[in-house]
Known about the structure:
By secondary structure, the chain is of the alpha+beta class. It has 6 helices and 8 strands; from the N terminus they run αααββββαααββββ.
Amino acid sequence: MIGAGYETxxxxxxxxxxxxxxxxxxxxxxxxxxxxxxxxxxxxxxxDASIQFMPLRYTVEDVTLAGVRVPAGEPxxxxxGAAGRDPARHGHDAHLFDLAREQQGHxxxxxxPHYCLxxxxxxxxxxxxxxxxxxxxxxxxxDSDSAPxxxxxxxxxxxxxxxxxxx
Length: 167
């Protein structure tokens, strides 16, 4: 519960802060009301999901994936992060962080029986935290003296350090 209820929401907030600070045009959209904090949360979940890979889901029947037959009972490594940047689903510019994008859904909270029970709470916490952070510190920016560092993980997509200046 701690990993699912805390760490992934923390990752969402950190990923959104990094996305906004490295895309000042997108930050301007939300600060001027031309995009919403909901747009920020959904685009961050699509573009830079808190969980990049979900290890070992098993096929319940024989399936064919990208022309490869996978028998029932085989383990699969699910790439949620890659799904969010699929041009077939999200358009030719799926690799871009774009708050004006028409959302087509994402896999950040999984799907079906594995869908995250806390998805609504995570969205709400992300929106509130981001709004309050940028309301309190509208000139927040990355610290040019220190480079952000990702935590090495095949599962979590988290910043080990994200140095910022408040101004």
